[in-house]
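Working notes for the structural subgroup meeting. M.R. asked for a predicted model of this chain before we commit to crystallization trials. I am recording the input and output together here so anyone reviewing the notebook later can reproduce the run.

Input as submitted:
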Amino acid sequence: MKRSNDSAAGPEKARRLYVYNGGFLARGRVRRIVELAGYDIALGLPQPDGMVGVWGNSPTAHRGESVANRRDANLVRVEDAFLRSVLPGRAGSPPMGLLIDHKGVHFDPATPSDLEEILATDPLDDTAILNMARGSMARMQEAHLSKYTGFDPDRPVPDPGYVLVIDQTRGDASVTACAADRNRFLEMLFVAQDEHPGARILIKTHPETAQGFREGYFGTDDCNDRVSLFSDPVSPWTLMEGAVAVYTVSSGLGFEAIIAGHKPRVFGQPFYAGWGLTTDEFPVQRRQRTLTRAQLFAGAMILYPTWYDPHRDCLCDLAATMEALAAETRAWRADHKGWVASGMRLWKRQPLQNVFGRYAPVRFQDDPGRARAMDRPWMVWAGKADVGHENAVRVEDGFLRSRGLGAALIPPLSLVTDDLGIYYDPARPSRLEHLIRARRSLRPDQTQRVERLIRSLTDEGLSKYNLSGDVPDLPVGRRVLVVGQVEDDASIRLGAGQVCTNAALLEAARAARPDDILIYKPHPDVEAGLREGACDAGALADVVATQADIGALLARVDELWTMTSLAGFEALLRGARVVTTGAPFYAGWGLTEDLGDVPPRRREDIPLSGLVHATLIDYPRYFDPVTGTACPVEVVVDRLRNGPLPRPGFANRVLSKLQGLLASRAHLWR
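Returned structure, recorded in token form:
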């Protein structure tokens, strides 16, 4: 199944697109997407049958239209896609995709557009695409994605039972294209009140109106004891849940209302009207086909747009764009008020600023009272949390951290934030536990994503630190890997239980597996002399795998023993049997043999796919060192595999060298 204009912009040969709107030249993201779509933006006059590009039905579009008419050239209309950005374009956010249309423009019913042709004539019966549509609709609602995503999904909405009337910006092209005006909006409001006597009427103000960029059609004069304006930046999906009916002229929220299960009453002629999913006041007579929600979504969101991946600088499918937007949206929602951070060593502060300070600088304050008084979201490094930090969000390194050790001051590519506890402390629930429990079952698209992620990690031998090293020759037989840990690490102190030293772990493994090949892997920080945990493993282990690549080693063993190491989770990804003597985050879910004291609240069965989704997709925040922005996990996997990767600055490299000489004073940099 192809988009109707695929042949018009083949990647094998860029074709000139003459433009007369400075936005095509000045807006770098727009120009880049157009170029990647196979067009060479040019100035001047086109030849007959050439192409002229205009921005929708904008005030400057008449320039290109006039040239196209005089030169007998083809008109190409470009518009923002239906998932655009965190903030409006007028606030400086670049688009995540474009609509490039050779027949018309999707919001103008005067002429059929490429989108209308797709919806009217395409079979829309491809099972894979319809499944993708269903999964994407669910993902939009789960992540609270909309055209603009700069809102707080937890912000409360009015009590359910209201009628939702959607305002738009005055003079919006989609409004004027269907000959609507202020009177049309007043008519819609009157009908909403007439059809729902006694019900509350909620007029949703457009985000650009609420932010002062453009006027809307409704104002306070239109309110009464039943009708009120609502301009709070809430999730449209939460707003839709409480609505008993939805009224719109041509807003994109009408499309989202359909996705949410409503049949909106439409007073304009938007692209989503006329397919049996709306009640149309002004039908478009040529639209006679009946579509399902999945078919409408597939045409409008999968087949029609040109989507862009800002991390790989290439065109992509809807799923990649959605995950990029979801990652950036998550960062904005968490960070735009600014953080105050406690317990952060000097060398960690710049990486933390990179991850959490993009929208407002992170302020560092170690005194709990002063930090709390700053009236900002508050975070503390989990290992430094103490009395007085009870209300602070815990921060720790993520599970795909870097290519190199944290103790060597390598900046992290992932960090976790936990508002309940921290994943390595079984004494109280963590946010990760809640996420794992919520992933007891996955949608098909989520399962497929997890399977692709596991394949990428295992095929490339990726792990937390991704240190290179040779795997020694291993004897033939059933191989059991025993992984050493840093013995004063917080995960050992809080989660190891009775077996809390590397020597004790080796003894337990040897006693339980007397006839197996025992392989001991020391922790890299211990091998480097930076942390505690050295032991004489040769007396119990058949092989001591020093300086070995843990990813390669895991692929060659049958079983792994650990107290609380992340290596146990990494072994599960590779299908190995895992025995835990402590209570790591992945114990207690029916996937491991647990010899330690796992909290009773965890004792339920969770599939590996659910554990992986919660642990590697939901819980961490990822940072792309190339773009300097938040990103999905797949981008970090690509960076770990192909680079480029961040390196510590000069000062950190010097400090890293000194650590070997000052190992006994490790508290100075940890």
